[in-house]
């Protein structure tokens, strides 16, 4: 792929932003909700800060990075003053929490007590309660992060007591499915867990955010109950990993 000049990328992002926002709104209404009930988070891995800022200029307010190093490299260049929320959506090593603890508004990829304890410890030190999502490996895939759905109750019980953390919901990346019905089955299972946990009214566990759905399947995810979608390539174009 030849590198497109920024002007061209900016135009694409503007157009894509409108298309995605409309599709999100339509899917929200189809699922009996309001467009503003769904949060559009942009997955910004490999995307230069200039392009991210252009999307922020279009109205984007939530961005998610996968890797701590990349987040730190772009951090100073992002237009945070527009009221933008930065979140971690990729696998997070315990020893890297210290770099991002004062810079992010949510960590979506919590999948162990060890990681949760470190987030809590460092958040407490700076007087914060860090919102987190528990990542669920809904397809039981070895290559992916997240905990098995069956292990959720026990993990929640252990994490809920940590003083520097607030559990705000669940995150999932389902397996690639050839059939839409199989995909919707995974999304619906996540939504059911979300509802079941909420009904338990566990102290310090809030089910406000169900983060699922990416470029290829965000409309389906919303129809199955997602409250947040994480969109990369549909907004920014194909990723260039060679940069
Ligand atoms: C890259 C990524 C996305 C977005 O993927 P697209 O298919 O490009 O929309 C969403 N969530 C996570 C965790 C990602 O790493």
TrEMBL record:
It comes from the Bacteria. One of its GO terms (molecular function) is pyridoxal phosphate binding. CDD domains: PLPDE_III_YBL036c_like (cd00635). InterPro entries: Ala_racemase_N, PLP-binding_barrel, PyrdxlP_homeostasis. Pfam families: Ala_racemase_N. The modification N6-(pyridoxal phosphate)lysine is found at residue 45. Its cofactor is pyridoxal 5'-phosphate. Keywords: Pyridoxal phosphate. Residues 82-239 form the Alanine racemase N-terminal domain. Signal peptide: none annotated. Coiled coil: none annotated. The keyword Manganese does not apply. Belongs to the pyridoxal phosphate-binding protein YggS/PROSC family. Pyridoxal 5'-phosphate (PLP)-binding protein, which is involved in PLP homeostasis. This is Pyridoxal phosphate homeostasis protein. It comes from Hominenteromicrobium mulieris.
């Amino acid at each position: 792929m030849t590198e497109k000049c920024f002007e061209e990328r900016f135009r694409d992002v503007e157009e894509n932003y409108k298309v995605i926002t409309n599709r999100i709104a339509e899917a929200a209404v189809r699922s009996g909700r309001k467009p503003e009930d769904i949060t559009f988070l942009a997955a910004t891995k490999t995307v230069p800060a200039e392009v991210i800022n252009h999307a922020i200029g279009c109205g984007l307010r939530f961005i998610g990075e996968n890797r701590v190093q990349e987040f730190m490299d772009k951090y100073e260049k992002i237009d945070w003053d527009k009221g933008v929320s930065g979140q971690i959506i990729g696998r997070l090593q315990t020893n890297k929490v210290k770099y991002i603890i004062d810079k992010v508004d949510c960590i979506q990829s919590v999948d162990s007590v060890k990681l949760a304890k470190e987030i809590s410890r460092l958040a407490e030190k700076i007087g914060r309660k860090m919102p987190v999502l528990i990542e669920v490996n809904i397809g039981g895939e070895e290559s992916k992060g997240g905990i098995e759905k069956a292990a959720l109750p026990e993990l929640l019980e252990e994490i809920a007591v940590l003083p520097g953390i607030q559990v705000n919901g669940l995150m999932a990346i389902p397996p690639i499915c050839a059939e839409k019905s199989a995909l919707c089955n995974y999304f619906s299972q996540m939504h059911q867990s979300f509802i079941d946990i909420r009904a338990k009214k566990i102290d310090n566990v809030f089910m406000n955010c169900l983060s699922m759905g990416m470029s290829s399947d965000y409309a389906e995810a919303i129809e199955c109950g997602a409250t947040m979608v994480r969109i990369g390539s549909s907004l920014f174009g194909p990723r260039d990993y060679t940069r």
